[in-house]
């Protein structure tokens, strides 16, 4: 089970837009249920302006995920880059050095899997948003021509995907 948790401070989660004040309670309960039923528990964290200085080591150690994916917040043109898009991620952005400092602070976490903007831009596919080829016009076409045909419009670097270690057995 993959669960997103961008902060272990409830106020920060709400500022980011993650939950309404009970996100952490639910997160911990889910981790306990997964452990009880022998279900792999994965945590996804988007590292951004509001959580960049947070030390998450104690809670990550407590919930003991088999993977902790730490994504550098990514601004995608036409998707979340301005006040005219559904979301505007500009206020969340951090520098590569700030992202690296976050990773360094959590480096001893065995489950940590860093995902910088450089890695994400070519190793994910999404028929709604592609970091290099898709456009809003193609999104409409995807619903008309189907996902397999639309995948021809999406750039995907299979080697980057493999380097991220994304092929694993789920239980």
List the strand order in the largest sheet.
1-2-3-4
Query: Which stretches of 5+ consecutive residues score pLDDT under 50?
Result: 127-141
Given helix and strand content, the structural type is alpha/beta
- Residue fraction in strands: 5-15%
Molecular shape: globular
End-to-end Cα distance: 9 Å
Global mean pLDDT: 79
Contiguous helical run count? 8
Largest sheet: 4 strands, parallel
**Radius of gyration of CA atoms, rounded to a whole number:** 17 Å
Number of β-strand runs: 4
- Give me the strand/helix succession: EHHEHEHEHHHH
Summarize the amount of helix as a percent range: 25-40%
What report would you give on this structure?
- With 171 residues, this protein is α/β, with parallel strands linked by helices.
- It contains eight helices and four strands.
- The chain has a four-stranded parallel beta sheet with strand order 1-2-3-4.
- Helix 4 (96-105) links the parallel strand 3 (67-72) and strand 4 (112-115).
């Amino acid at each position: 089970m993959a669960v997103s948790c961008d902060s272990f401070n409830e106020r920060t989660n709400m500022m980011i837009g993650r939950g309404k004040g009970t996100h952490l309670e639910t997160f911990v309960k889910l981790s306990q249920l997964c452990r009880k039923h022998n279900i792999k528990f994965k945590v996804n964290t988007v590292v951004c302006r509001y959580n960049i200085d947070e030390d998450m080591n104690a809670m990550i150690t407590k919930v003991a995920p088999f993977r902790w994916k730490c994504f550098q917040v990514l601004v995608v043109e036409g998707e979340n880059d301005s006040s005219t898009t559904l979301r505007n991620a500009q206020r969340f952005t951090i520098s590569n050095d700030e992202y690296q400092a976050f990773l360094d602070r959590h480096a001893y976490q065995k489950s940590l899997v860093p995902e910088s903007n450089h890695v994400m831009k070519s190793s994910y596919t999404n028929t709604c948003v592609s970091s290099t080829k898709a456009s809003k016009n193609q999104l409409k076409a995807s619903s008309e021509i189907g996902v397999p045909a639309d995948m021809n419009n999406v750039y995907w670097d299979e080697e980057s995907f493999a380097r991220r270690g994304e092929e694993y057995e789920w239980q």
